[in-house]
């Protein structure tokens, strides 16, 4: 059966199943609201404002006021009320609503200092408490992103254990995420749970998304192909955008000085303005969240050679989420955001691209939209139908030596659509679904008009150079998945299975690659209610032989240009991932502690590796992606610690010790993965010594790594040489003063990043420099100051 027929058939089947299940259970349709539920939500007698109060298995809900009070209409009958508030443990309570009467409900809720009771969705495609999840889920809240003063998604991910962000290009600052020792394409980036973050978006996308558009980030390390399909070998990063819950707004402005007090460096500046607003209708029947960001960064040259180490940026982002309660048991949620960004690196920023000695420049226009419809078909049964898409238009220039043939144009459309059905019963959860993910990518080098001298006539004549198609690819993956989770006393076990069929058509080479892939996963958890918890999991994953993010970025110098392409015989890469963890938690009034050790082992079969070619007469080098027949192994341990001895102090830290090796020597006769340190980690400390004041300090450690160098100082520039970097420690600090007034809260903040200026000190220089020879922290010493104004009304 062709894959395109799978989705509508499964969708129809699940809808019919849901309706049948509802009728079979004898459940009657919800009657119009006939009673009132009102009450008070407190903690130790103090009211909790802006907590959400919802009737379970319906879309009926509201939020508490400044004084912790709430009131809403409710249908007659027995119901379960769920109360949630940020930083507190959720509470469920049974109630009885009688027609024409008012039911009172006063609930005391407890603080959740360690976030163990926080509800997460990425681990099993289901809303579940973090402590009860059979795989480790790390969350980065918007409050945490603000505390460490991150400008974008890229900077925030560095504060999650097992994750590392690196800059891969000294010209344009293309960033890459490494998770558990594996580079960017091994990690699946999700936007609100949908895999529409394409390979083109991943080139610069982590830096394109401002942190103020993010409600939270959920990170799951380990194989996730059983739930999310291709490329989820190292793990998944789910970016969840702002949701409208209360009526509030905030606006902030920040200015930064890059390269402060660095000798011989031309200081750069980075300015950013952010705004957010959420509006919620009566009883949350509808809601609107708005956000936007303006950022402008000047180029930064650390060694005064006229060529930038940090690119010029001009970014504008706007977005919105709109939700509508279409019935007592159904809701429609839509999202949209637009990113418009210009970036340029190299030299001579006041000249056109082709007049500079080196210019790497891109202009992105990204539009992302999604729609999701949720319907409760019965008690603890939910149907979700969704669709999402991302359209990217990119104009680019990757050229050196005033080249005219370096202008390019790229169009990329990625999409995802599917259906998911959940049956959540006490002790047994079943999730099934089907989805189609795909994309169309077209990348061209533009033609131009070249004026040459005709040697016979000695006249200058014009010659048209036609455009060239670099990449023209169409990919489609259709899949069905199912997962069952069983809980017995302290034990939880879940098994998932996904069947994918992928087809990748390359219209440049005329080739087509397709295959059926079965991806199983099994996870186990012991200690559901115990302070000691033991987890273990196995997952199989894969990567299809498609175009990846590094293929769409070109490293350029005056003597060398790197082009990436796939070997015609490139085949699918397969992974087998094993993880095991031991955690211990203490939750007391005056001491909250969470310790975790997670061991990981990933075996790669036919892993992708680069075969470096010989430069041609024009200096062009082809990096050909091939399969390494001897495989590769990545293994290590992630260590985590969270400590909150009091409400005014908390510490969060993570450290990774790992090895990443091919089964046989690769380039430079080396089996170790390049640009992959064996150890790295971070810490954050938040301290509120007195009222109105907050002090935050954080640091990122990066161990030694092997970095290839192909610049003019290499003994053999064609063969290059391998260097070992020094370790780096990027330390930052921030002080915030909060002034509370009747018109809103005013947060004044000042801080510094990379205070010790632990920054690369051997950047290559000149037009022939190797732009790929870059490592260590992305930014040099930077000082900043700003103001945030917020209010809830």
Automatic annotation (TrEMBL):
Membrane-protein topology: Multi-pass membrane protein
Subcellular location: Cell outer membrane
GO molecular function: siderophore uptake transmembrane transporter activity
A family per Pfam: CarbopepD_reg_2
Keyword terms of this UniProt record: Cell outer membrane, Membrane, Receptor, TonB box, Transmembrane, Transmembrane beta strand, Transport
Domain TonB-dependent receptor-like beta-barrel intervals: 301-755
A biological process from GO: siderophore transmembrane transport
InterPro entries assigned to the protein according to its UniProt record, in alphabetical order: Beta-barrel_TonB (IPR000531), Beta-barrel_TonB_sf (IPR036942), CarboxyPept-like_regulatory (IPR008969), Plug_dom (IPR012910), Plug_dom_sf (IPR037066), TonB-dep_rcpt-like (IPR039426)
Family membership noted in the UniProt record: Belongs to the TonB-dependent receptor family.
Protein name, UniProt field: Outer membrane receptor for ferrienterochelin and colicins
Organism of provenance: Marinilabilia salmonicolor
Species classification: Bacteria, Pseudomonadati, Bacteroidota, Bacteroidia, Marinilabiliales
């Amino acid at each position: 059966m062709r894959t395109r027929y799978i989705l509508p058939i499964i969708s129809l089947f699940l809808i019919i199943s849901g309706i049948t299940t509802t009728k079979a259970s004898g459940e009657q349709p919800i009657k119009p609201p006939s009673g009132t539920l009102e009450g008070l939500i407190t903690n130790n007698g103090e009211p909790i404002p802006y907590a959400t109060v919802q009737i379970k298995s319906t879309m009926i809900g509201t939020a508490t006021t400044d004084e912790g009070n709430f009131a809403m209409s409710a249908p007659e009958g027995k119901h379960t009320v769920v109360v949630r508030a940020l930083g507190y443990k959720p509470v469920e309570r049974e109630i009885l609503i009688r027609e024409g009467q008012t039911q009172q409900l006063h609930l005391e809720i407890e603080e959740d200092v360690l976030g163990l009771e926080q509800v997460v969705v990425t681990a099993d495609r289901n809303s579940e408490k973090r402590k009860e999840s059979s795989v480790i889920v790390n969350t980065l809240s918007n409050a945490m992103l603000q505390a460490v003063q991150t400008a974008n998604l890229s900077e925030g991910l560095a504060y999650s254990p097992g994750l590392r962000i690196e800059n891969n290009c000294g010209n344009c600052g293309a960033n890459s995420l490494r998770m558990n020792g594996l580079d960017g394409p091994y990690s699946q980036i999700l936007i609100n749970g949908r895999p529409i973050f394409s390979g083109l978006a991943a080139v610069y996308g982590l830096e394109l998304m401002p942190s103020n558009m993010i409600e939270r980030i959920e990170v799951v390390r380990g194989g996730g192909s059983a739930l999310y399909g291709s490329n989820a070998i190292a793990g998944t990063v789910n970016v969840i955008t702002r949701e409208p819950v209360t009526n509030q707004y905030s606006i902030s402005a920040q200015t930064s000085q890059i390269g402060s007090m660095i000798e011989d460096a031309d200081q750069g500046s980075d300015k950013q303005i952010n705004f957010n607003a959420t509006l919620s209708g009566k009883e949350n029947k509808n809601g609107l969240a708005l956000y936007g960001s303006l950022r402008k960064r000047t180029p930064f040259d650390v060694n005064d050679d006229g060529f930038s180490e940090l690119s010029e940026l001009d970014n504008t982002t706007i977005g919105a989420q709109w939700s509508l309660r279409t019935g007592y048991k159904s809701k429609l949620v839509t999202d949209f955001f637009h990113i418009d960004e210009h970036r340029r690196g190299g030299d001579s920023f006041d000249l056109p691209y082709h007049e500079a000695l080196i210019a790497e420049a891109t202009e992105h226009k990204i539009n992302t939209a999604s729609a999701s419809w949720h319907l409760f078909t019965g008690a603890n049964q939910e149907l979700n139908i969704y669709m999402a898409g991302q359209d990217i238009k990119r104009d680019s220039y990757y050229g050196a030596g005033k080249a005219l043939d370096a202008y390019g144009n790229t169009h990329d459309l990625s999409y995802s659509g599917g259906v998911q059905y959940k049956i959540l019963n006490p002790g047994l959860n079943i999730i099934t679904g089907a989805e189609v993910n795909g994309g169309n990518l077209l990348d061209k080098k533009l033609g131009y008009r070249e004026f040459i001298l005709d040697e016979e006539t000695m006249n200058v004549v014009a010659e048209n150079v036609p455009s060239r198609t670099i990449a023209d690819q169409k990919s489609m993956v259709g899949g069905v998945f199912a997962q069952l989770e069983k809980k017995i006393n302290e034990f939880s076990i879940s098994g998932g299975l996904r069947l994918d069929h992928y087809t990748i058509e390359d219209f440049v080479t005329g080739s087509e690659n397709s295959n059926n892939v079965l991806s199983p996963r099994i996870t186990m958890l012991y200690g559901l209610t115990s302070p000691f918890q033991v987890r273990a999991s196995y997952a199989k994953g894969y990567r299809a032989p498609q175009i990846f993010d590094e293929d769409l970025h070109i490293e350029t110098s005056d003597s060398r240009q790197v082009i990436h392409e796939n070997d015609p015989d490139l085949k699918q890469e397969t992974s087998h991932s094993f993880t095991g963890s031991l955690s211990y938690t203490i939750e007391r009034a005056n001491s909250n502690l969470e310790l975790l050790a997670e061991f990981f082992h990933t075996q790669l079969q036919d892993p992708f590796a680069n075969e470096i070619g010989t430069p041609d007469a024009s200096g062009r080098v082809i990096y050909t992606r091939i399969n390494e027949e001897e495989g590769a192994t990545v293994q290590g341990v992630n260590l985590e610690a969270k400590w909150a001895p009091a409400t005014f102090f908390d510490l969060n830290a993570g450290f990774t010790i790992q090895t990443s090796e091919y089964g046989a020597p690769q380039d430079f006769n080396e089996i170790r993965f390049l640009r992959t340190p064996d150890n790295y980690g971070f810490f954050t400390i938040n301290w509120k010594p007195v009222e109105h004041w907050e002090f935050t300090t954080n640091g990122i450690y990066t161990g030694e790594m092997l970095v290839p160098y192909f610049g003019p100082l290499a003994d053999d520039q064609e063969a290059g040489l391998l260097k070992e970097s020094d370790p780096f420690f990027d330390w930052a600090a921030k002080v915030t003063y909060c002034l509370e007034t009747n018109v809103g809260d005013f947060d004044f903040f000042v801080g510094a990043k990379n205070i010790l200026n632990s920054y690369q000190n051997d950047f290559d220089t000149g037009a022939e420099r190797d732009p790929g020879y870059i490592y260590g922290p992305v930014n040099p010493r930077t000082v900043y100051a700003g103001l945030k104004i917020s209010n809830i009304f």
